Automatic annotation (TrEMBL), chain A:
<dbReference type="InterPro" id="IPR005894">
    <property type="entry name" value="DrrA"/>
</dbReference>
<dbReference type="InterPro" id="IPR050763">
    <property type="entry name" value="ABC_transporter_ATP-binding"/>
</dbReference>
<dbReference type="GO" id="GO:0005886">
    <property type="term" value="C:plasma membrane"/>
</dbReference>
<dbReference type="GO" id="GO:0005524">
    <property type="term" value="F:ATP binding"/>
</dbReference>
<keyword id="KW-0378">Hydrolase</keyword>
<keyword id="KW-1003">Cell membrane</keyword>
<keyword id="KW-0547">Nucleotide-binding</keyword>
<dbReference type="InterPro" id="IPR003439">
    <property type="entry name" value="ABC_transporter-like_ATP-bd"/>
</dbReference>
<dbReference type="Pfam" id="PF13732">
    <property type="entry name" value="DrrA1-3_C"/>
</dbReference>
UniProtKB/TrEMBL annotation, chain B:
<feature type="transmembrane region" description="Helical">
    <location>
        <begin position="247"/>
        <end position="267"/>
    </location>
</feature>
<keyword id="KW-1003">Cell membrane</keyword>
<comment type="similarity">
    <text>Belongs to the ABC-2 integral membrane protein family.</text>
</comment>
<feature type="transmembrane region" description="Helical">
    <location>
        <begin position="159"/>
        <end position="182"/>
    </location>
</feature>
<feature type="transmembrane region" description="Helical">
    <location>
        <begin position="189"/>
        <end position="209"/>
    </location>
</feature>
<keyword id="KW-1133">Transmembrane helix</keyword>
<feature type="transmembrane region" description="Helical">
    <location>
        <begin position="80"/>
        <end position="101"/>
    </location>
</feature>
<dbReference type="Pfam" id="PF01061">
    <property type="entry name" value="ABC2_membrane"/>
</dbReference>
<dbReference type="GO" id="GO:0046677">
    <property type="term" value="P:response to antibiotic"/>
</dbReference>
Amino acid sequence: MVVAMTRTTTNAIEVRGLVKHFGDTKALDGVDLDVKEGTVLGVLGPNGAGKTTLVRCLSTLLRPDAGTATVAGYDVVRQPRALRRTIGLTGQYASVDEKLSGRENLYMIGRLLDLSRTEARRRADELLERFSLTDAARKAAMDYSGGMRRRLDLAASMIGSPAVLYLDEPTTGLDPRTRNEVWAEVRRMVREERVTVLLTTQYMEEAEQLAGELAVIDSGRVVAGGRVDELKARVGGRTLRIRPVDQADLQKIADALAAAGLDGVAGAHVTDGAVTVPILTDIQLTAVVTLLGRSGVTLAGIDTQLPSLDEVFLAITGQKATTTQDTATAHELEEVAV
Amino acid sequence: MSAAVLTKPALPVTDEGRIGLRANLRHIGALARRNMLQIKKDPESMFDVLIMPIIFTLLFVYVFGGAISGNGNQDEYVNYLIPGLMAMMGMNIAMAVGTGVNDDFKKGVMDRFRSMPIARSSVLIGKIVVELGRMVVAVTILLAMGFLVGFEADSVPGLLASVALSLGFGVSLMWIFILLGLSLSSPQAVQGMAMIVLMPLQFGSSIFAPTSTMPGWLQSFTDVNPLSNLADAARALTQGGSVGNSVWITLAWAVGITVVTAPLAVAKFRKAA
């Protein structure tokens, strides 16, 4: 009955009051979450906030101590086998066999998902092609670059065409170019496969790039949630940084911005050889840039920056994120559900 | 009456998505193939299986054989030693399974296996299937080496029976070492622990020398040592002596060890973080 009810809703993931202890540490302290079908939820939080524990509970690797969680209508504790058929998991650490080649890895996973030999081979080649790994198909995964390995990991998660995909810090430790590649893959997967994604990240920028909604998590609790633009408005949006060629122009720019009295633009100040201005909307950004163009100052550089995770926490909770404990040490204490 | 309604029943884990036998065998096959491919990528990992039987045969026959049999009578000792070494091969390879499991099961790919719709035991059984193959290779080389230095078997069925018994006992030992491999923190710890268990069992047995010259207190240990039973059974099967109860006792040990340690190992694998 419960199953039938939850299946008819449009939430692919429903989490209610989820609790998980490791000894005295509460890794999850009553988490509530909903992820609508076909959307991406970004779970944003510092190290040790409970992000990985949440993903491990939702993928049946850990049994929660209290609360409930259903994924695609299946209960994580009571229906683990059926649930495993509907999920794909890409962990913080590459979850492929390092010694096997890309194709061998994908073929193996296809066979474990009950594809026939022919079908497993076909699916492996198809995914290698789609994730631009065909040239490296016969190379051992340990010889892949960081970005290739993450792409192989994503491909491995997609073999069973899961309804729900967990991406646990998919770009941690990647350089910016490779990070962009992974983001592009994730966006394409969401667009083309209509997969529901729960993404954990430490980066506001990553959340903004990929997620429609955000849950900010700290010390095992969801401390804020909502659409990305709503949260951004609360946090204060972007910061525009303007660097003139001549340092003498710094004060001139700041004064010009202050004098113009642009709607909602306030608090331009000079730091570190640049003028920084908090920006909330694209209209404000355009107005500031137009003003700069008219001012006749020669510019060396201009860029926008998203708030850091710390700034997000500061704005939302009024305090710094509490880094309770490193997630890696938490793993050693973990117990696993059936 | 109403009390029963108020008490929330504990809902059982459903059978939905249960894994059938055919699917289970297919999963074991895919995972065994993974272990085979790992060996193919890393051929050095076969050195123990290929070299150990040769070294042990030469070492014991020519260094100790003459002394043990008296008057440099190595030929007689070969027939005593080879069945014993069969027992030892199983034990040594089983130990390697422990260190291999310890290293392998910390890898990220294990999280993927645990989050997939497969029986978790299939990961362990896939490993055992391949290790059994390695045992077959080791015993084959041992016998080839044995025949080269003058080993003689009484009958082919007897020889095959002794091989089967050694392999069966070896597989049961693998469960112990898998459990050890999943319980200890590093491959070095597994190796160290295994040596502590292995040395007295191997040398405090009838594998290398008859126990009749050993002191009484040691004999009471060697008599119950399952490796002595296995070595005696293999010897009787290949040399045509009286088998007695040694075959049954060895089988009982193998079944007993498996029944106790296999469920513990699977449970440990489930819980390993």
